[in-house]
Amino acid sequence: MSKPSTEPCIICVAITGSLPTKENNPAVPISIDEQVESCQQSFEAGATIAHCHVRNDDQSPTSDPDRFMRLKENLERHCPDMIIQFSTGGRSGAGRERGGMLPLRPHMASLSVGSCNFPTRVYENSPELVDWLAEEMRGYGVRPEVEAFDLGHVYQAATMVEDGRLPSNIHIQFVMGVKNAMPVDREAFEFFVRTRERLLPGATWCAAGIGAGQVVVNEWCIREGGHVRTGLEDNVRLDRTTLAPSNAALVERATGLCERFDRPVATAAEARSILKLKRRQTG
Ligand code: MG
């Protein structure tokens, strides 16, 4: 739909999420050590953003700031160039618990700006909570990645940029393929791309596809000049029958697509430059 892009493509790896377990795929990293190792391997394969959730030892999702702190400290030690993005998603806590790790000042954090249905529940993001999370991110210098689960969320992000609740240089991700929410639909994707360009010209963008939609949406993003998200959070399979052996294998699949469509893969320095992230020592 648009001219081919030659801008370096930033690959984000969503390593763990809050749903997949070892029973779904033994490669899902749960312990901090496993998460750090998976990030390192993914970084070496070409990923430069790690989207991170944390789990308790029994695999249940948690928003425990101490666990996030341990993960961040270990990533900074062992994988210092990786851009760290924490999830403030709703499966790991309720209300403001979800933003309890923002004082740790990760480079980025995910932010849902509206509600929708998820496979078995309502994904609730009240206006009060959305505004509070956005304010916390502003206060701690954390770059929001807006996760748009619906086209309405794209408009809401634009409204929040316009009235100053969000910075103009947000990263925005269109999430497709969550059961009961937005399906993987090409027309909706194209509408998202056009609307982002029209209403959020200062924003960088990517999209995520769930399950078998992951590789489909990866290709759409690469061809239309967006950035890419992959990883076991969204999809535990390489194809319909084969479990992915690692997050790095899914990253390698994305870099293969970049090569096929002549998009260079962004280095860590290029990713920071495209996202206009400052390098900083955090604490
Ligand atoms: Mg997530």
**Radius of gyration of CA atoms, rounded to a whole number:** 17 Å
Write down the secondary-structure element order: EHEEEHEEEEHEHEHEHEHH
**Helix residue percentage:** 25-40%
Mean pLDDT reading = 96
Task: Record the strand order, biggest sheet.
Answer: 1-2-5-6-9-10-11-12
Strand tally is 12
- What's the shape? globular
Report how far apart the termini are. Answer: 43 Å
By secondary-structure content and strand pairing, the structural class works out as alpha/beta
Ligands in the model, by name, code or SMILES, are: magnesium ion
Strand content: 15-25%
Poorly predicted parts: none
The biggest beta sheet, please?
A: 8 strands, parallel, barrel
Total helix count? 8
Give a structural overview:
Helices cover 36% and strands 17% of the residues. It is α/β, with parallel strands linked by helices. An eight-stranded parallel barrel has the order 1-2-5-6-9-10-11-12, surrounded by eight helices. A two-stranded antiparallel sheet has the order 3-4. Strands 7-8 form a two-stranded antiparallel ribbon. A hairpin with a 4-residue loop joins strand 7 and strand 8 (122-123). The longest helix is centred in the first third of the chain and has 14 residues, at 32-45. The radius of gyration is 17 Å and the shape is globular. The chain starts with 10 loop residues before the first strand and ends in an 8-residue tail after the last helix.
